[in-house]
Amino acid sequence: MKDKTIIITGANKGIGKEATKQLAKLGAKVYMACRSLDSANQAREVIVKETGNHSIFVEHLDLASVESIQKFAESFKQKEKNLDVLINNAGLWTKTKRLNELGAEYTFAVNVLGHQLLTQLLLDELKNASPSRIINVASHFAGGLDIDDINFDRRNYNETLAYKQTKQANRMLTREWARRLEMENISVYSLTPGFVPSTELFREQNVVGKFLLKLFALIEGRTIEEGADTILWLASSDKINGSNGGFYNQRKEEKCKFNNPEDEKRLWDKCEEFLSKIKVDSSILQSV
Length: 288
Known about the structure:
44% of the residues lie in helices and 14% in strands. It is α/β, with parallel strands linked by helices and 288 residues long. The protein has a single domain (5-195, 223-275), classed as NAD(P)-binding Rossmann-like Domain (Rossmann fold), CATH 3.40.50.720. Helix 1 packs across helix 8, helix 4 packs parallel to helix 6 and helix 6 crosses helix 9 (261-275).
């Protein structure tokens, strides 16, 4: 991975931090795109000390904020012309229903729309580096997506379902991106890190929820290192034994039950409906 440039969102903790460390060991230049600069800078210090790789950079990115996403992309473009790998890793699980500035439910805004916008803004840099890759961190814990009720206007809001539908969306949009970028020589993959109980994702769970998670962890739990392994493989392997647009688990492609090109196109259009509210120069958002 020497001379390769990588962006990874949510790189300050959990599997994002571990993936950053492993990529740094391989000699990559890594941009840690994180909401908490203090936490990210602390993580960077540890990673640089452990790997000896000083080409690790911290940049602020709040995926719930359009302005933050745009500023991050502009800052990156000033520093780099090429982007070899974009790893859309950051995720949110929140108990409270609220909407972001685009009128999207917050979990969906962060886990789906934020990465969708970020990817669009960085397409030129990905094209410049082709063959390049986009890696979307999804989950086995996915389902319940209602494309016509993203915001739970008709359904009762449920934090678990709100999270699950974003992970289904990540898997579906991966295939739509793969179709749209195939001629650009940009590969797109999604993956499940498995159940990694020691991440910050479950910090809002109540006492009962945390107890159940501990029990489940004894059966299905993976370490942070195990959770990050497939990210590292998809980012660094010379050859991926599987299909473009595929869903991967433990370095193997799995059949995805959400494979439906018609629904994937509908979901893409729904995302574009939200993103069309952004007032930016039309040249910034790349058509796909």
